[in-house]
Specification:
This is Magnesium transporter. It comes from Rhodococcus sacchari. This protein has about 450 residues and is mainly alpha-helical. It has 3 domains: about 130 residues, MgtE N-terminal domain-like (MgtE N-terminal fold, Alpha Horseshoe), CATH 1.25.60; about 110 residues, CBS-domain (Roll); about 170 residues, Tetracycline Repressor, domain 2 (Orthogonal Bundle). The chain contains 22 helices and 5 strands. The strands form 2 sheets. A 3-stranded mixed beta sheet has the order 3-4-5. Helix 20 packs antiparallel against helix 21. The longest helix has about 30 residues. The radius of gyration is 29 Å and the shape is globular.
């Protein structure tokens, strides 16, 4: 991977600022000259930093071939915004040049009336391919597959196979991995282009093909994409319930699916909704909406903590020192639970574990939490006993042992419970665990204090 020098980075940033300023001042001649020598990646970067109106203005100045490449690299939500700012003839031309799976992603972001109009404007063959992809459920891999591929027959010779590849070079999604199907379109094998090119011209495809890796079109998109990436496949075959070939999933599409899924998980584990467009291109209102729901949920959950403090108010009145350690205890418990939940959520995503492993996961996290609690509790006991008194040290130490054990156990179990009820494990992790551990941790703390201190 080529690393950009400091001078190149500074030049790139200066060019971006020049374009942004020129667009804002309607100096289109300067914009046209500035973008003439820019690569596609740089143009995408500039577009992502502009507002909706200026983005449409800049896009109209791009040469046609460059415009198509740039459009394909934008997020679907930004594509949707751009479509609304372009003329109908421009939109129709762009839409027709997209691959069927990319069209479907854009259609998902557009109003139904606009989507229907674009579909009607497609040639019959393209409309049929797009409708095939559009017919699968929202989160199914069939919705993200490409229906444009080169398929071979097992009784073809290598010479015939190469001729078939040459005929489809311009419209096929990829030719590096080629599916092999029988007369009924049932998938029977795959063959790499290298193997075909290395074989003698009279060799049959059946002699060089290998067993295929495939997924059903109705399988979850993230699971299929992760399998494709783990197997290091250039393309995975997508079949229907009768194992008839309906499309392919290329590695670049698989990695894009995983990138989006990981971004969603990271956002939800942090108590926010994922952004559907680059940060600088996201309106302030959208940023607020992505965060406010979770803040309200957490605020309501925090009322449990307040109620616990109110119940044990008399205990605090008798030993005011106990109040000093409340932030330490609930913070440690929340962090312990979040660590466990993050670890288990990641293991679920990688298929290292499944919901049926919940007993083993709970047992492991119980031992991990207990070990962490003993280490942290031991240190806390010594330090607190030296500063205050041994009885206070015992309360803090025992509470840390209990809270860490509880938090790790619950944190490990919740993602598995979420997967069992078909919810997003990330949603059930950090925000939920923090609220739960805060309330239960305080109950444990005050019960231990009452028992040890006799109050």
């Amino acid at each position: 991977m080529e690393v950009m020098s400091v001078d190149d980075a500074n030049t790139r940033a200066a060019t971006s600022r020049l374009i942004e300023r020129a667009v804002g001042e309607d100096d289109l001649a300067t914009v046209h000259d500035a973008i003439a020598d820019l690569d596609v990646e740089h143009i995408v970067d500039v577009l992502e930093r502009l507002d909706r109106t200026d983005r449409a203005v800049l896009y109209r100045l791009l040469p046609k071939d460059c415009a198509i490449d740039v459009f394909e690299r934008l997020d679907p939500s930004m594509q949707s915004e751009l479509v609304r700012g372009l003329r109908d003839d421009q939109v129709a031309a762009i839409f027709a040049d997209l691959e069927p799976d990319d069209r479907v992603e854009l259609l998902d972001e557009l109003p139904a009336t606009v989507a229907s109009s674009l579909m009607r404007g497609l040639p019959a063959a393209d409309r049929e391919l797009t409708a095939t992809v559009l017919g699968y459920p929202q989160r199914a891999i069939g919705r993200r597959m490409s229906p444009t591929f080169v398929s071979l027959r097992p009784d073809m010779t290598v010479e015939q196979a190469m001729a078939a590849v040459h005929r489809r070079l311009d419209d096929a999604e990829t030719v590096y991995t080629l599916p092999v199907v029988d007369d009924g379109r049932v998938l029977v094998g795959v063959v790499g282009l290298r193997a075909v090119m290395n074989a003698d011209s009279g060799t049959l495809v059946a002699e060089v093909m290998t067993e295929p890796y495939w997924a059903r079109a109705t399988d979850d998109a993230e699971e299929a994409a992760r399998r494709c990436a783990e197997l290091r496949l250039l393309a995975m075959m997508i079949v229907d319930n009768e194992k008839r070939l309906v499309g392919i999933l290329t590695v670049d599409d698989a990695l894009r699916i995983l990138e989006i899924a990981d971004s969603e998980d990271q956002a939800r584990m942090s108590g926010t909704e994922p952004l559907r467009s680059p940060y600088l291109a996201t309106p302030i209102g959208s940023l607020v909406r992505s965060r406010v729901v979770w803040l309200l949920v957490l605020a309501l959950g925090a009322t449990l903590t307040v109620q616990v403090l109110e119940v044990f108010e008399s205990t605090l009145d008798q030993v005011v020192t106990l109040a000093l350690f409340v932030p330490l205890l609930i913070g440690t418990g929340g962090n312990t639970g979040n660590q466990a939940a993050t670890t288990v959520t990641r293991a679920l995503a990688l298929d290292d574990i499944s919901p049926r492993d919940i007993a083993a996961v709970v047992a492991r996290e119980f031992r991990v939490g207990l070990s962490l609690g003993l280490l942290l509790g031991g240190v806390a006991f010594v330090l607190t006993a030296l500063v205050y008194e041994p009885s206070i040290g015992a309360v803090i130490g025992l509470t840390l042992v209990s809270v860490c054990t509880l938090a790790a156990t619950v944190g490990g179990a919740m993602p598995l419970v979420a997967r069992t009820i078909r919810a997003d494990p990330a949603v059930f992790s950090n925000p939920f665990i923090t609220t739960f551990v805060d309330a239960t941790g305080l109950v444990i703390y005050f019960l231990i204090a009452k028992a040890v201190l006799g109050i």
